[in-house]
Amino acid sequence: MAVLKKIQVIALAALLAFCFACTAPFTDGSQPVGGSPSTEAESSLPESSVLPESSVLPESSVLPEESGSSLPADEKTGTGKLAVHFIDVDQGDSVFIELPDGQCMLIDCGERNYVGRVITLIDLLGYKKIDHIVVTHPHTDHMGGMALLLGVFDVGEIYMPDVTANTDAFLDLLGVIESKGLSINVAAAGVALATDYNGLSAEFVGPVNIYPNDLNNCSAVLKTVFGETSFLFTGDAESKEEADILVRYGDSLKCSVLKAGHHGSSTSSSAPFLKSVGAETAVISCGKDNKYGHPHAEALERFAAAGIKNVFRTDLSGTVNVLSDGKTYSVSVGTPELDYKWVLNISGMKIHRPECGGAVSTAEKNRACSARSIAELESFGFTRCGTCKPEE
Ligand SMILES: [Zn+2]
Ligand SMILES: [Zn+2]
Asked: How far does the centroid of ligand 1 lie from the alpha carbon of residue 7, in Å?
């Protein structure tokens, strides 16, 4: 199929049942994102995000192509594509990025109560190691589950802005970082992540300034460019940090997809910032019926005024997935449906067979699904349930 110059936007007409509930194996007729028939190819952008029914599964999770790299055999093979998952973590932020060379990146992980969803997705997509972790700022809706998550994956490098918080979640995170022998890299404007894949770059454009009593405006803001497609991940940056970033970067902020700042709050997404960014697609991460009223009407109006054609919301659509081949990108909504072998209790650190009563009764906040081997899970401190006695 010829490469489309315009993006295709594919979304589910109806929300799929969450696989995160782990109640059923995932077998359906999902087809790769972006694989819609080419007859309608030369279309203009849909005005709305309600579209033909279709599918959810990012190609990168199922169709490994040639690797093009010299990774060790046990590392995940890259697909040459970039898959960005804006994970539905209720009121919070979490973005998991599959890089074209088989590496991956996690920006935030939401509140502790939803981190099982994040762990499940990363595990079932086949990653044992998270190569790059960004904690945008120390608010629990962004890093409340990070201490737990870091305990169940191998970790490459971790970036955080140079601010602290006096919360249990943040102190726990520092404790895990230390116990894993990791060091913290400071996320600040001008710092670039080490990516050696051709045509891929990831550089922080914020924070430019530090405001110790205003953590949102110290958010690590990352710009990721892959070929002709680009993404801006803004954390909870509000208009003050947006103004700082504008002064320093101006028109070089241009990108295709914007993760709206601070859950679509009116205090973010200022008109001058949106103008410089010039995005055609925005993703808002917020919880259904959240108490803050996010997203605010003023922000949505500014998106429209700035010419943003597509707005996706995790409160309405669940997880939002963007797949880029470096020339064009497509969007799908819904949790990728992936096979799993075990149900984990991430609080009690138990491995269950899915049908075990102990698995069924595990509360959602303590549940994750895994396709890893038992030996691998045991290496992270999980133990087998004595009742269902899981075995390979
Ligand atoms: Zn937040
Ligand atoms: Zn915040």
From this structure: 29
